[in-house]
Request: fold
Amino acid sequence: MALPYIILNGVSSKNITGLLIQSLPPISKPKIRTSVEEIDGRDGDIVTTLGYAAYDKPISIGLKGDYNVDDVIDFFNGSGQVIFSNELDKYYNFAIYDTIDFNRLIRFRTATLNMHVQPFKYSVYEPPIKWTNTNGTTIANISVRNTGNIYSKPILTITGKGTVNIYLNNTQILELALSAAGETIILDVEGMNATDTDGNYLNRQVTGDYDNLILAVGLNNLRVTGTITSITIDKYSRWI
Reply:
């Protein structure tokens, strides 16, 4: 049976000399955060759901042969995207916050580390949806299928100029105020932020509620109106 491994930001643990991934956590569903209120004189309680919680995935690691502990430390130093070999078609957003006892790792050749992952996972293979204005139209109708098992909050990259309106299933969600000369705006719906390609914030140029730009599981109809050059849609499917 093949040994387990992980891929951090495109680098496989199999490429780190002497590093072993001894065991991976099972695939599990994230916990739903709740607020529980008890009212005197009323049976039971009132439970309000607050969304899915991030959680830790413990990984058992080991050393063998001609290892370089500095390479191991560097491999686990950071955050970004992680793929587990027991779920190679999905990636998680992760960070490592806990201290890793590398002295124990060197002494006993084994240690456990916790990877803090966000609750949702995304397809490794799902390509972005790209629309390009080839005939001067002022309306872009785009069908977006969320093939995951839970609603998604995509990333939209729109290049255009002037006023641009975004509709989801015939309901207007956002209005963008782009420069008259034209510019590119990146809408991170989950992060509720708008930036340009250099990472500068453009939130003042967006009117509307990001919380309403949610793609249900299945087919969604996205319509963008205005003077548009191109549209790209990323992270439109996700799973728990």
About this structure: The chain is about 5% helix and 50% strand.
